[in-house]
């Protein structure tokens, strides 16, 4: 953040992805990492990220799109995850 390498939105998306990737909790990793990304955005004076109109816990097309975007981010392609949180 100090080097301003990425825009605030991408920093929050990368934080979210990294927390989900390391999977620090037995349950609720997605929820906690989404909360952390939103808190970071708030701290930076930015609006919260958009996580869709439905629960990401339920098996839906929205969740599949979210999971696919996370998988793309595993290969350092954050495009779909950024698109997901801004659509």
Structural description of this entry:
The chain has 87 residues and is mainly α. The chain has one domain (8-86): Fido-like domain (Fic-like fold), CATH 1.10.3290. Helix 1 runs antiparallel to helix 2 (29-43) and helix 3 (61-74) runs antiparallel to helix 4 (79-86). It has helices spanning 8-22, 29-43, 61-74, 79-86. The chain is built from four helices and no strands. The chain is globular and about 40 Å long. The two termini are 24 Å apart. The model has no long low-confidence stretch (mean pLDDT 94). Helix content is 60%, strand content 0%.
Short structural summary:
With 87 residues, this protein is mostly helical. The chain is built from four helices and no strands.
Question: Could you please say which CATH topology applies here?
Answer: Fic-like fold
Tell me the helix content: 55-70%
* Beta-strand proportion: under 5%
Mean pLDDT: 94
Structural class, please? mainly alpha
The global form is globular
Give me the strand/helix succession. Answer: HHHH
